[in-house]
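Input record, target 12 of the design panel.
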């Protein structure tokens, strides 16, 4: 997964809310259409002002759009709304026609996308990626979609670097996700990238979803819901979260569940989709982000408190995960606290 910072986020639009326009296509999935409204409709600045404004538009003038359910929805905006967007999100649709079958845009869809302004951030949920690919916006770039469609996407668009195994891909100004719940992960990731961990975590808490799933996590986990008759690794994870500032050995985590290291490692990957080492690094990066945003502790102290030991080690991990140094990250989100709409940029 690439996590480059975008130059088209909320920082470019001053104090007004960052406008997210969701493109509703016939055959859309109502659940996925609602994800951007739910996630981006929640964040507010410290004065209670919305950080985002979410609109829904169609490729036609305002009117009904068919869904894959037994009802249609009324979409209040036509394609002209795309010209006003800071971010455009394309949810999944089951009626993409030649886009899905031949890899070409319909005249109607091409005319709608012509309204996009240069620099607009683009994102797709599940099969919405076909629209971006057919428009040539993913040529030579990494992308993902639902695992069941990944092989077809790659055959239809050989110039796209399809990764079938991840939840989402952040390639800076173009982001793509797998299906359904991964769309929530992607939208939370964009909020986190724009406004930091505290804002994103509050949205996740109110939405009652996990605050963070690494985009590179596997889409398919062998045992997404542990068998109640088998031991889980939940206790070990809670134990580790309580002492991230300390050195944590794999054997110590396994001991919390009275398992051998081999059994624990296998069970941990089955339940989380990543190895214990990868999971610990993810948690330490999240702890460091929180401390950099919310405290005045020195970079050296944050590195120790997050469990990286040294500032150099933390710098390497944050650079790999976020593409910025700890000091640059802190400056961005300290400025963001004072300037509504400010976002991560380098």
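The sequence produced for target 12 reads:
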């Amino acid at each position: 997964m690439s996590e480059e910072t975008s130059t088209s986020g909320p920082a470019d639009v001053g104090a007004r809310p960052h406008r997210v326009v969701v493109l509703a296509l016939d055959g859309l999935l109502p659940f996925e259409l609602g994800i951007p409204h739910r996630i981006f409709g929640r964040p507010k600045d410290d004065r209670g002002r919305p950080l985002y404004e979410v609109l829904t538009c169609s490729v036609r003038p305002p009117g009904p759009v068919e869904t894959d359910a037994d009802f249609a929805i009324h979409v209040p905006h036509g394609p002209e709304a795309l010209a006003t967007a800071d971010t455009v999100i394309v949810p999944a649709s089951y009626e993409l026609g030649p886009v899905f079958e031949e890899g070409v845009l319909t005249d109607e869809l091409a005319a709608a996308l012509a309204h996009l302004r240069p620099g607009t951030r683009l994102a797709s949920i599940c099969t919405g990626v076909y629209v971006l690919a057919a428009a040539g916006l993913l040529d030579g770039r990494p992308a993902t979609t639902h695992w069941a469609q990944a092989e077809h996407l790659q055959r239809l668009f050989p110039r796209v670097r399809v990764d079938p195994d991840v939840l989402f891909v952040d390639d800076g100004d173009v982001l793509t996700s797998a299906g359904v719940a991964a769309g929530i992960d992607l939208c939370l990731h964009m909020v986190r990238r724009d406004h930091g961990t505290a804002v994103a975590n509050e949205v996740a808490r109110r939405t009652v979803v996990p605050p963070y799933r690494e985009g590179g996590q596997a889409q398919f986990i062998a045992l997404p819901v542990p068998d109640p008759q088998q031991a889980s690794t939940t206790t070990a994870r809670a134990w580790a979260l309580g002492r991230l500032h300390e050195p944590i050995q794999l054997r110590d985590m396994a001991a919390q569940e009275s398992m051998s290291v081999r059994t624990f490692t296998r069970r941990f990957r089955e339940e989380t989709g990543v190895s214990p080492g990868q999971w610990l690094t993810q948690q330490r990066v999240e702890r460091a982000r929180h401390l950099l945003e919310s405290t005045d502790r020195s970079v050296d102290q944050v590195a120790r408190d997050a469990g990286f030991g040294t500032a150099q080690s933390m710098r390497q991990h944050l650079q790999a995960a976020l593409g910025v140094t700890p000091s640059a990250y802190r400056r961005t989100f300290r400025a963001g606290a004072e300037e509504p709409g400010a976002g991560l940029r380098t």
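Strands lie at 18-23, 52-57, 63-66, 72-75, 87-90, 121-125, 142-143, 161-162, 168-170, 174-177.
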